[in-house]
Here is the input.
Amino acid sequence: MRRWIPLAVRLAVLVLLVAFVAMPQWFAPVFRPLTENGAPPIYNHGSLLVLTLLHLRTVVIATVAATLVSVGLAILVTRPAGREFLPLSRSLVNIGQTFPPVAVLALAVPAFGFGETPTLIALFLYGLLPIFENALTGLTTLPESVMEAARGAGMTEFQRLTRVELPLAFPVILAGIRLSVVISLATATIGSTVAARTLGEVIIAGLLSNNLAFVLQGGLIVGGLAVLIYDGFTSIERLADKRIGRTNTGD
Amino acid sequence: MIEIDAITKRYDGRPVVNDVSLVVEPHALTVIVGTSGSGKTTLLRMINRLVEPSAGTIRIDGKDNQSLPPHVLRRGIGYVIQGHGLFPHRTVGQNIATVPMLCGWDRTRIARRVDELLTLFQLDPAQFRDRYPDQLSGGQKQRVGVARALAAKPNILLMDEPFGALDPVIRGKAQMDLVAIQKQFGTTIVLVTHDMEEAIQLGDRIAVMDDGNLLQYAAPAEILASPATEFVETLIGTGDRPFRYLSLSALDGIVEAGMADGEPLPVTASRRDALAELLWSGRTALPVTGTDGTVLGRVTRETLLRLAERPV
Here is the structure.
């Protein structure tokens, strides 16, 4: 397979996405066949660019928070002092995952009102599990001889964590963040049912006015973002993997 | 000097190391040998407190090793493990610099020390300093592992099966390098192995362990000549015993006047090698040369055969 083809496809997706979000009117002819009775082919209740940025902002805030809490928790329960909290933290994080985001929204709205906050809470809870599980895997499957060498060299527990354990677990943790981000990108759309400003607005507007073009536009932007971000993370992981010599199986 | 005084380690009430006492001589290479599960590694790991004893004390140069926090104690003791344990995310140079960094050496001093050690281990600094461990061969990794342990110039070096993962050819070379370094720096080395051959070849003193107990602690010649128990005798392997005994000394001291034909051996060669050469070439004597290449005399088969007999 020629090596430039995947790169060209990625670049094309990126260019199309940016062009569509910035200048949606250019694409009106493409979407016109999907509309009926002269309905607008391009979303017209607000700027797609602004919605996309707000959507991304919501996802980034929720993911950063979920990462900090999950990785922090994983570090805590892999220390000798915190080991007994491992089962408890596992079940807590699992509950976060099994609780449907819609239900979280329904419960959070009375407490926090309409807007971004309930969505952030739902995404945060939903994003915990993949990051936590991966961080746990990364921190508990470190090569025994390397850990032994770190102790034998006279590193303190904190030095072992920051200089050996986290750098070695980094690619695995990153894979967890990647899963979490992609899930959040899709899930964030339902936040628009409680007035969070996300790309869900476009989809909901399409559903309400029976405009397939709107639904497709919202879905395509979210899909494009997910593919590109997933891809970006995968490349960073591969780079980090190479850095810690995990690509080489010979030893 | 490491004084191990009535040390015991119990796991769930079962002793893994049982009331072991021994004194490791300074500037010597002491080998702890035993089968797996004999407690030899646990004993070694109690010296730098990777394992805390259940009872007993260990003194290093007269000072109880419990008097320092474990991480500070470990920075002063080199530690080499089987499978090297190099940090895969750090370069060779950074790996070697581990302990000096922890000790807060300044940058130029660390860089100088790294290059010095790489050169000592026959790795060109310019070529190897910035490589990652997965770009090295097994033998090179092992050397970097030892270099890392020696980086902060420790007086004591603990080695847990350091040659276990090497193939025989590289292992022989690595063993010789270790002995040379030990002689050069006078480091006190405690080495754990399951291989009696390795123990006899390297050790100034050998401690034989079985099932948590110290069976015998003596010089190799004495272990070979009078094994304390049947187990020690099994470990030596009676078939090879005369040859192992001969391998302990070089030719100096048994060279006699006279001439012999054929290829000479240097006076630094072991008596075992000389006998092997004589048997293989069918000669009764061979010439011996000094370090400058002049012929000192000869060694006869008779002499060697007599020396291979059990000493009384």
Summary: The radius of gyration of chain B is 22 Å. Chain B has a mean pLDDT of 91. The interface with chain A takes residues 48, 50, 71-76, 79, 81-89, 98-99, 102, 132-134, 145, 148, 158 of chain B (CB under 8 Å). The longest strand of chain B covers residues 14-24.
